[in-house]
Amino acid sequence: MGAGRVLLRFKNIGYGYEKDRPVLVEAGLELAAGERVGLTGPIGSGKTTLLHLAVGLLKPDRGTIEVFGRERRTERDFWEVRERMGLLFQDPEDQLFCPTVLEDLAFGPLNQGRSREETEIIVGETLEILGLQGFEKRITHHLSGGEKRLVSLASILTMKPDALLLDEPVIGLDPESRERIRSLLLTLPQAMIIVSHDREFLLSVTNHTLALRGGRVSPAAERAGGDRLSALPAREGK
Amino acid sequence: MHIAEGVAPVPVAAAGALVAAVGVTIGLRTMQDRQIPRAALMSAVIFLASLVLRLPFGPSSVHPLLNGLAGLILGWAAIPVFLVTLFLQALLFQYGGITTLGINTVTMGLPAVICYYLFNGYIRKKGTGRGGFLGGVAAGVTALVISFVLWAGALLLCGKHLAVIVGLALGPHLGLVLIEGLFTGFAVSFLSRVYPAIFEVPSGREGNGSA
Amino acid sequence: MSCVTHYTGNTCVHRLDPRTRLLVTLGFSLLMALSNHSGVLCVGVVIGMMLAALSRLPLKPLLKRLARVNLFMFILFLLVPVTFTGRTAFSVLSIDFSSEGLLWSTLITLKANAIVLVFAALVGTVEPMILGHAFFHLRVPAKLTHLFLFTLRYLDLFHHQYITLLRAMKARAFRPRMNLHSYRSYAFLLAMLLVRSLERSERIMAAMKCRGFKGKFHIITHFRFQRRDLIFCILSLAVGSILLGAIYLNIWRIW
Question: What does the pLDDT read at residue A232?
């Protein structure tokens, strides 16, 4: 690990929604190119907060955030970050807002300033990669839960991001859709942070797992144990 | 586009209140009990649009008035909806006022009803294609133009010397008309593709041969 | 974080019956609207300030509210005296300001401030839901009261969803500009919220029906008209009659 260029670095991040109840205290984290990091932790431990901090939807009370080699502070600093870093929201309903799949997938590329023609080509390619051919004219509001999740993932991939931040990408999905997303994630080249409660899922798609507890990030116990046992043959997971 | 607290002399305020009362009564009659949540949703949307929706417009920003859209979805019920919205706006941030509540309700609500009669049928027939957008643009533009005329008329009734304010407001409102039209167009295009049932307005006197 | 707020507190004004406060506000506003009497309007502003002080309205929000009204009044002062024909009071850069125009603008400004102050102090201090219940007891049509109450219920739900969706749009590099793409995106955002809320409200309605709801809220807040309300009413009537008398007899004019 740590071989690639560092894409994202959190240093001593402190953040609280209310003044005297901090969610994060001195949280630190690094994501290098090509790396796949899993992030676990109890509900309310600040996993989503951390992802939102990374793209500047929230601003930290303390500490520094470095993305793509530069420290980011102001809203303007994060404009570039958002064009290059894809954030998948936990609930696709929070993310999809256009009438049709085509319009929703085109939203990001158009924000990046791509032309209409180029955007349509990218949308077509992305739908094909995700096995969603022919979905262009479908009404997003009428899609099934699994389809909505896939489309919201697609809406981020059309922006051709350098890194992905995925917030609970398989929560509440049926086994089939879950497997579909799992195998898709394995084929993607981007570095990613995946927030999930599902240890088995994380083991199968990430290189290493971190845990968020008490506002700090530390190596996850299970994985650390697993690594210690790695001398043993027939290791489960990967 | 509203008349501020205290500006309207009593006869004008009273006339406004009277017309508003008639409109509200008809609106409440046509609104069935099960429609109340839908109407309330619309007044919440209109209120919040004025509070948080900021459409960039030159160096500043504007918010859509949405009375064209409200009319298409609600018909006559748009008038009580605007009464509630305008009351809340006066109560929470002094947009308009209680003595001008009637006039402002008429200014906003009446164009909504007119738009319902002019464009609701067209959108229900042709809404799924390009017609949804075009119908929406027409409704947004029509509603805003009528609102402006009513507002200007009311202001002139409050005092002839206020003509200067109407004159000054004319320029910016031309831009507003354009934005309102586009915004309503896009919204109607969305709704007629995703949830066309939203444009089915019960006429209230159904059953005994509506006119 | 609610977008529907009121001036909280526990002053003698807050303890008055909301129905009384509503009616007195209406009466007062009518009186102010009726009068073009400088003395009466000045008294009205003083009454407004006294009530605002009595109900301890927080200064900053109150000033903001007054600023919104007086911004318009400021425009009146700039424009109306120039266009109003009459005696010239003074000239700036050879533009004549008529004294009639100045007087008219002053009267309107006094009126507006008096009404806004009393409205804020007496009605702005009622919790909006309670206000809905007061409407009900004041025989406002039931449907209108329900519409008002449902609107309040939906406002926060809606506001929250709006913020969440807009945040997700920002995460996809959305930066509002003056162009079609931005307007379309905002319109889609609003329409999507409308559709989702509509379906959700139908689910809520279904759940309420399952619990025996038949389209009407049961208003369980009952107000008690107490002695302090009686005193307040008598006081208001007395002040109102005096002011009405002053208008009728045309006395105590300042100009």
Answer: 36
Beta bridge pairs of residue A37: A193, A208
- Give the count of domains, chain B: 1
- Best B25, B41, B85, B168 member to test C by mutation, with max C CBs in 10 Å, is B41
In which residue are the tokens 């994630």 written?
A185
C113 CA to centre of own chain? 12
Give chain C's residues under pLDDT 50: none
For residue B117, being part of any structural domain is answered with yes
What single-letter DSSP state applies at residue B98?
S
Q: What are chain C's partners, defined as 3 or more CB pairs within 8 angstroms?
A: A, B
Of C121, C138, C153, C166, nearest in space to C9 by CA? C121
Beta strand pairing call for C88-92 and A70-71: unpaired
Residue B204 lies in a domain: no
Annotated domain spans of chain A? 6-18+28-99+163-229
A160 three-class SS: coil
**Minimal CA separation from B143 to chain C, in Å:** 17
Interchain CB contact of B192 with A (< 8 Å) = no
**CATH number where B160 lies:** 1.10.1760.20
Query: Which pLDDT score is estimated for C143?
Result: 92
Q: Which residue of B has its CA nearest to C31?
A: B10
- Confidence band of B104 (pLDDT split at 50, 70, 90): very high
* Chain C residues within 8 A of B41 when measuring between CB atoms: 150, 154, 158, 194, 197-198, 201
User: Other C-beta atoms within 10 Å of B23: how many?
Assistant: 23
Report whether pLDDT(A208) > 80.
Answer: yes
Is A222 in the C-facing interface, judged by CB distances under 8 Å? no
Which among A31, A36, A42 has a CA at the least distance from the CA of A8? A31
Task: Please state, in angstroms and rounded to a whole number, the distance separating the CA atoms of residues C166 and C227.
Answer: 51
Q: Is the pLDDT of residue A238 over 70?
A: no
Which two three-digit tokens encode residue B87?
């009351």
Name the E strands within A73-232. Answer: 85-88, 163-167, 191-195, 208-213, 216-219
Domain segments of chain C as ranges: 18-126+224-249, 132-210
Query: b vs e for B54-81, b when ≥16 Cβ sit within 10 Å of the residue's Cβ?
Result: ebbbeeeebbbbbbbbbbbbbbbbbbbb
pTM: 0.90
Q: Detail the DSSP E strand segments found in C126-241.
A: none
Phi, psi of B56 (to 5 degrees): -60, 135
Angle subtended by helix axes C142-171 and B78-93, to nearest 10 = 70
Residues A42-81 pLDDT 10s: 988 999 999 999 999 999 999 999 999 999 999 999 999 9
Which stretches within chain B are classed as H helix? Answer: 10-30, 36-52, 67-74, 78-93, 101-126, 132-158, 163-194
Q: Which residues contact C31 (CB under 8 A, 6 or more apart)?
A: C40, C44, C240, C243, C244
Pairing outcome for strands A6-15 and A24-32? antiparallel
Residues B16, B110: Cα–Cα separation, whole Å: 12
Smallest CA–CA distance, residue C243 to chain A, in Å, is 50
Let me know: does B172 contact C91? Beta carbons within 8 Å: no
Domain A6-18+28-99+163-229 has CATH 3.20.20.150: no
Rounded distance between C-alpha atoms, residue C66 and residue A93, angstroms = 40
Which CA distances in Å does A194 have to A7, B128, C22? 15, 39, 55
